Automatic annotation (TrEMBL):
It comes from the Eukaryota. Gene3D superfamilies: 3.90.660.10, FAD/NAD(P)-binding domain (3.50.50.60). Coiled coil: none annotated. Pfam families: NAD_binding_8. SUPFAM superfamilies: FAD/NAD(P)-binding domain. This is Amine oxidase domain-containing protein.
């Protein structure tokens, strides 16, 4: 007896997968979303840490904010603003030049509006994953996506070998689901064997990535020597960006929390020494100290963080190529397989949203395919 259900499996709850899942559900397609992490958001996650004194500390360790220009995405943004999931981050931003040790370009308006999720960057994905018609399963890493010719459907298997059922269609919203990099990190073959979609395989091989390490810091007192709440580093080999997470709307201000991002070069050099596997605790501590040392050039005047932690696992933080700028996603109509994510359009939240919308449209434009 067939156990096929009229469902689409979406793999990944980052913004591309979450937007795709909710768009499908709003158009009458029932969706099961699988996410290997404990919660939604992917690179728009919020991280919860506990300080030594038991204090809860929350950090947006991936995307610090996003900007939007596309009209379709602006419509979604307004909807999220009305629901209180998103707010504009109105602060001073600028840059710090490590040659002159000075802050430059301080302005109130910036280049465009900067938006953040409220109360955390993950709020949008959280809400989309809870929409009617989306069944979200967290803590389930998809280990295999098998095409069953006899049933004309996909079989979804967990990393632990558990059968999660058959689906009429699949959306893969992370390049690691099909890239050879998956094997370098886990030792296992990637969940999706691209030979099942030979027309897509050529275009999807070896998408280059830029890595990034992030360090989370918490201070008891505000860092009053820093005149901005977010800034890029100029002429630094170590840091590319720093922001005061607790200055965003809707965040607790009981401590001042900062997140620093390394340059891609710094992260790449480190990965060349340690490999893609999780670095040792000693390496993580050393890197956190190096990033903090560079941050101190901004004139912290002896303020020491009471909490400091490096986040590893950002080996593929930013795709370094956009592989489907026109189509915005990949689609195999015969097997009802969509592949989406920021790597298709542009390495940012807006690009990921556009790709998720495009993937959903492929199923919706051909309803008979389900
Ligand atoms: C440090 C950093 C800074 C950034 N700064 C900015 C910025 O300033 N502005 C901006 O717009 N963007 C920024 N970005 C980029 C932005 O975060 C991403 O472009 C966007 O969030 C990507 O969304 P996505 O859905 O394509 O992928 P992801 O968010 O990576 O989602 C993919 C999801 O799939 C899940 N997954 C993968 N494999 C499996 C599996 N086998 N089974 C189940 N689940 C699986 C992953 O756990 C993940 O949750 C930044 C990113 C980083 C890391």
């Amino acid at each position: 007896m067939s156990n096929i259900v009229t469902k689409v499996a979406v793999v990944g709850s980052g913004i591309s997968g979450a937007v795709c899942a909710s768009t499908l559900a709003r158009n009458g397609v029932s969706v099961t979303l699988f996410e290997s992490a404990r919660g939604p958001g992917g690179r728009m996650s919020q991280r919860r840490e506990i300080a030594e004194d038991g204090k809860e500390l929350l950090f947006d360790h991936g995307a610090p904010f996003f900007s939007i220009s596309n009209t379709d995405v602006l419509k979604l943004l307004h909807e999220w603003e009305l629901k209180g999931l998103v707010a504009e981050w109105k602060e001073n931003f600028g840059s710090f030049d490590c040659l002159s040790n000075k802050f430059l370009d301080i302005d109130q308006e910036g280049l465009g509006k900067r938006y953040v999720g409220v109360p955390g960057m993950n709020s949008i994905c959280k809400s989309l994953c809870n929409e009617t018609g989306v069944e979200s399963k967290f803590g389930i890493g998809v280990g295999r996506l098998d095409w069953l010719d006899s049933e004309n459907s996909w079989l979804v298997m967990g990393m632990d070998g558990q059968n999660h059922g058959s689906f009429k269609g699949v959306v893969a919203s992370d390049k690691n689901i099909f890239s050879t990099r998956f094997k370098d990190v886990t030792g296992c073959p990637p969940p999706l064997d691209l030979s099942l979609a030979p027309e897509l395989a050529m275009k999807l091989q070896d998408i280059p990535v830029n890595p990034c390490f992030a360090v989370m810091l918490a201070f008891t007192e505000p860092l009053s020597s820093i005149p901005v709440k977010g800034f890029t580093f100029k002429n630094s080999e170590v840091l590319s960006w720093g922001h005061c997470d607790s200055s965003k709307p809707g965040r607790s201000t009981t401590s001042e929390r900062w997140v620093l991002h390394s340059t891609a070069k710094y992260a790449r050099d480190l990965i060349a020494q340690t490999g893609l596997q999780k670095p040792s605790t000693a390496t993580l501590t050393k890197v956190a100290e190096e990033l903090l040392e560079e941050f101190e050039r901004t004139g912290l005047h002896g303020s020491q963080p009471f909490f400091k932690k490096l986040i590893d696992g950002q080996g593929s933080a930013f795709p370094a190529a956009s592989v489907a700028e026109e189509e915005k996603c990949f689609w195999d109509g015969k097997k009802r397989l969509a592949i989406c994510g920021d790597f298709c359009v542009s390495p940012n939240v807006e690009g990921a949203i556009l790709s998720g919308l495009a993937a959903a449209a492929k199923f919706i434009e051909a309803p008979s395919c389900l």
